[in-house]
Amino acid sequence: MTMSNDEHLRVSKIKDGTVIDHIRAGQALKVLGILGIDGANDEQITVGMNVSSDRHSRKDIVKIEGRELSQEEVDVLSLIAPNATINIVRNYEVAEKRRVDRPDVVEGVLSCPNPNCITANNEPVTSKFDVLEDGTRCRYCEQIISDDIPSLIDPE
Ligand SMILES: [Zn+2]
Questions:
Q1: pLDDT-derived band of residue 155, with 50, 70 and 90 as boundaries?
Q2: Intra-chain end-to-end CA distance of the chain, in Å
Q3: Would you say 117 is a known binding-site residue?
């Protein structure tokens, strides 16, 4: 039996962990960034980019072995991957599906791009953004970010 790489990737299973599916094609690395996954820990990550989704479209898929994403982490994903589906896998079976819900507030994940913002000046203040229809707004300086969210992810 032979399989194309696409098919192999789609059916290969992880034992325990999280599968993030239906990420917009090309966004997988941004998803890893917003989750703070850089391969520094022992997590085994499988990234599939531009995988056939159906006859007409392509998607990215991320598999994280040995880690279950929390609802908070899943909600943050909504900023860049609103249509992603999250499968929590235990012992090779999908044990839970999580929906990506847009949170009202994102705390401590993004850093404010405004150099005059109190959160950008090493103050011991946790960044806090309100999630609006068309962007996210800094709670402290009211700067609105409408795109390029991944570049603002706090490396810590
Ligand atoms: Zn700010």
A1: low
A2: 45
A3: yes
